[in-house]
Amino acid sequence: MSFSNFSILEQDIGLIRFHIEMSFGIFNVSTETEIYMPYLQCFSDELKNLYDHFTEKQKAVFSPIERDVDILFETGGNMGYISALINLYYDSICENNATLTCKYTIDQSFLPELIEEIETTLEELR
Fold it and tell me: Residue 8: helix, strand or coil by DSSP?
């Protein structure tokens, strides 16, 4: 999964747009989404808490305004592993709707880099 092309839509309310691309097996999907900077900051804070307390039941949720993607990371006594649930939604005018759901388990070692990337992006957008 990658996030790119961040841009500010409305500075006064902290609304940003960015591109999400995800590859999983034979599937490759992408979407543009919008989120308020405070919600992205909240996600970063939840990731920090998840990393700092990964042996306890913790979660980090990313759910943008457009509801075109949902990301849920959860921990809870599984020796440093995180359960990930990612849903990418496609809703078209023609009612051809589709959802790509990915569930997997990953170790928590990626979190510091992800947190740093989010924090750096937020700082650059401010």
Answer: strand
